[in-house]
């Protein structure tokens, strides 16, 4: 996984550690929701709370390829993870950088790996440009990012792609199967408010943490009717899409990233025409890589999958 932990990246990590069908090999960290040193610290703390076995955690890019970092502390708190006051991490980060660790873990894996970026794609772009041979042992990249309809960082751009659009453009041309867990499905998976409340009363650190994170996630909007607000699963939905791919409906579509300066920068342009590329083909202009774009999600199934895997009491 490649994260900018981050409230919902933390949920994604909890799920990746605790789902019995997943084998989390390494976590790399990138600037995004907060600065990369906070991301590393938050990631180590979450892995402690989850009771994860020892695994490499590596620090990566301190900023996007071209632009300065633009953290989302207004969403994720001053420490990037809700200012929960978690204890200092017991485990340590690797002395090696993220790209080195990604290369080694991918090439060393006896089975092709799935890369799961839930953050700006700077580390992944650097990896693909520095060590392109890794694609030989990548089965699929399932990334949280992009939007088919509305954005969040801007009216049209989703945060992870908007934060480093050039890196996202590199990812799309990786030449391996890619699933885009878009903002459209990201927003729909909610854990009901009474479940969130129950998680928060747990004595078990990982279960309690899941409840605290969900209660701080702003993706859910107000509670429907009476009772506590539901909590959005956010990035953890992308991990659900790895563990249980049948929970999303995808369509193979051409996707590109708007790179020009201005109001559309960072927008993912998803070509949903019935005969895509017909105009471009007729004029002999460029084509765009095909990406499996998640258009629908079984939200209840993914919320249930998360609770069944993470809850320990
Ligand atoms: C993405 O941006 C971040 O704030 C979240 O962690 C998620 O990865 C949603 O646009
Ligand atoms: Ca994230």
In short:
The protein has helices spanning 7-18, 36-50, 73-76, 98-108, 122-130, 159-163, 165-172, 183-186, 193-200, 205-216, 236-243, 278-283, 299-310, and strands spanning 2-3, 27-29, 57-59, 113-115, 138-144, 178-181, 190-191, 231-232, 248-257, 268-270, 290-297.
Keywords summarizing the entry:
313 residues, Inosine-uridine Nucleoside N-ribohydrolase, Chain A, 11 strands, 3-stranded parallel β-sheet, alpha/beta, single chain, 13 helices
How many domains? The number is 1
**Main sheet strand line-up:** 4-5-6-11-9-10
Q: What about the largest sheet?
A: 6 strands, mixed
State the total count of DSSP E strands: 11
Q: What hetero molecules are in the model?
A: beta-D-ribofuranose, calcium ion
- The name CATH uses for the topology is Inosine-uridine Nucleoside N-ribohydrolase, Chain A
Number of helices: 13
Q: What's the N-to-C terminus distance? A: 26 Å
Binned, the helix content reads 25-40%
User: Globular, elongated, flat, extended or rod-shaped: what is the shape?
Assistant: globular
> What order do the SSEs take from the amino end to the carboxyl end, as H and E?
EHEHEHHEHEHHEHEHHEHEEHEH
Helix-strand makeup class: alpha/beta
The overall pLDDT, averaged over residues, is 93
Please identify the top-level CATH class.
Answer: Alpha Beta
- How much strand? 15-25%
Please state the second-level CATH architecture: Alpha-Beta Complex
**Global Rg:** 18 Å
The CATH superfamily appears as Ribonucleoside hydrolase-like
Which stretches are poorly predicted, pLDDT < 50 over at least 5 residues? Answer: none
């Amino acid at each position: 996984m490649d994260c900018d932990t981050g409230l919902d990246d933390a949920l994604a990590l909890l799920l990746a550690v605790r789902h019995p069908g997943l084998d989390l090999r390494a976590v790399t960290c990138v600037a995004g929701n907060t600065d990369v040193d906070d991301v590393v610290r938050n990631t180590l703390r979450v892995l402690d709370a989850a009771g994860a076995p020892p695994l490499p955690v590596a620090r990566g890019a301190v900023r996007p390829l071209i632009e300065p970092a633009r953290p989302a502390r207004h969403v994720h708190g001053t420490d990037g993870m809700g200012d929960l006051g978690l204890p200092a991490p017991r485990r340590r980060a690797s002395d090696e950088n993220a790209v080195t660790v990604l290369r080694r873990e991918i090439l060393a894996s006896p089975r092709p790996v799935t890369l799961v970026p839930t953050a700006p794609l700077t580390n992944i772009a650097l990896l693909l440009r520095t060590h392109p041979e890794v694609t030989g042992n990548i089965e699929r990249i399932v990334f949280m990012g992009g939007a088919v309809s509305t954005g969040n960082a801007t009216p049209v751009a989703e945060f992870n792609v908007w934060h480093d659009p050039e890196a996202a453009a590199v990812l799309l041309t990786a030449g391996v199967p890619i699933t885009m867990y878009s903002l459209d499905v990201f927003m729909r998976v909610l854990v009901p408010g009474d479940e969130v409340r129950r998680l928060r009363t747990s004595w078990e650190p990982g279960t309690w943490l899941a409840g605290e994170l969900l209660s701080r996630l702003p993706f859910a909007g107000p509670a429907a009717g009476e009772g506590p607000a539901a909590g959005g699963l956010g990035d953890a939905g992308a991990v659900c899409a790895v563990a249980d791919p049948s929970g999303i409906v995808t369509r193979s579509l051409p996707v590109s990233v708007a790179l020009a300066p201005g109001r559309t920068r960072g927008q993912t342009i998803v070509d949903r025409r019935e005969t895509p590329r017909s105009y471009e083909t007729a004029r002999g202009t460029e084509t765009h890589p095909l990406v499996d774009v998640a258009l629908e999600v079984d939200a209840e199934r993914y919320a249930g999958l998360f609770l069944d895997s993470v809850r320990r009491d």
